[in-house]
Design goal:
Distance between the termini of chain A: 36 Å
Helix content of chain B: under 10%
Oligomer: heterodimer
Number of helices of chain A: 0
Largest sheet of chain B: 7 strands, mixed
Helix content of chain A: under 10%
Structural class of chain B: mainly beta
Order of helices and strands of chain B: EEEEEEEEEEE
Number of strands of chain A: 11
Amino acid sequence: QKEVEQNSGPLSVPEGAIASLNCTYSDRGSQSFFWYRQYSGKSPELIMFIYSNGDKEDGRFTAQLNKASQYVSLLIRDSQPSDSATYLCAVSGFKTIFGAGTRLFVKA
Amino acid sequence: DAMVIQNPRYQVTQFGKPVTLSCSQTLNHNVMYWYQQKSSQAPKLLFHYYDKDFNNEADTPDNFQSRRPNTSFCFLDIRSPGLGDAAMYLCATSRDGGATYEQYFGPGTRLTVT
């Protein structure tokens, strides 16, 4: 079992729709959870972080954390073609572990 | 603007020819990381420095070395690159080493081995 798992995708959504990206992790001691966006050929860019159970909203992005289920998700509302990228989930406890990412494609 | 800078952005080296990748930061962060990322894979942590303290990952090959001469700069040395070392090399920084500190990445160096 991988320490941080994400569906590789691609996840395809129409412009204006909600994109839902999911991530599960194995270490129950994990404390912090991060979402990074990575465009093809570029480096990861931090979008959001969340520490506590529940939802955290920042503009069109909402991170959701459920520690009991070891599950973290990222919702992107009003998806735009410019949101097309790979989204990496990172989970931090003793050290930070990255998932391999989910490719999102937003169709215009 | 405070940032993480990597040079060069693209590096071509020959099989077995040593290569050095550079990272600098103006964020004054304590921790600097080196990751290797291959296509469609997660970034793989090679090692990190907490201030001057070097922390190597158990599965990082001896072929990979690092130096941090001061707070701002960190170097990745690949002593004898093999074809399997072709990848994107990412430098990242964080303000401190605890779990709550997010990492900021430089633009990366794409390494090609011929």
